Amino acid sequence: MNFAASDTPASADSADLGAADDIPRHTLKILVAGGFGVGKTTLVGAVSEVHPLRTEETLTDVSAGVDDLSGVETKTTTTVAMDFGRLTFSGGVRLYLFGTPGQERFWFMWDQIAYGAVGAIVLVDTRRLSASFASIDFFEHREIPFVIAANCFDGARRHSVDQIRTALDVDPDVPVMLCDARRPDVARSILVTLVEHALRSSEAPLGA
Question: Pick from 13, 86, 139, 142: CA 20 to 30 A from residue 201's CA?
């Protein structure tokens, strides 16, 4: 199966007209998860071929003492439900991307958002690795294949893939990579890695 991204994104007009070549042969639900402020909304927006749906609200004084802004003090908005985007690959594979809210008070929504997902990207900020543990635990306990993508923020100390893997204590078969969530080509590469990992996981024998 060819997962090379289409050079020409499907247009809204062709979708409205229901053109035959806009009907995918395979549709996959993908989650983009991680702690608060790690770049989930940015990644979905960077790679989506349609204008992404966002449910961002402005942070107010009401959230003070509720949301942990350590390390992201300059952040002014937050996702309160989910982000949604779409990406179609050549060969008729279409990914529907769902970005989860990062704050603990919205975790009750995760089970509903995760229903039917074939895999997940866990975005991490190496300055706040502890913010990623809840996402990793969530997918491990539900046996949903996932990859780790460390978002390299400007000015942040760089760490190797091996250092990040050791710090997060994930299984050796879980792909770990460095990324810039703002770059569409990088986001596409992460999605390809995830889909390939999910396919391998689905083919693994029981008890493996």
Answer: 86
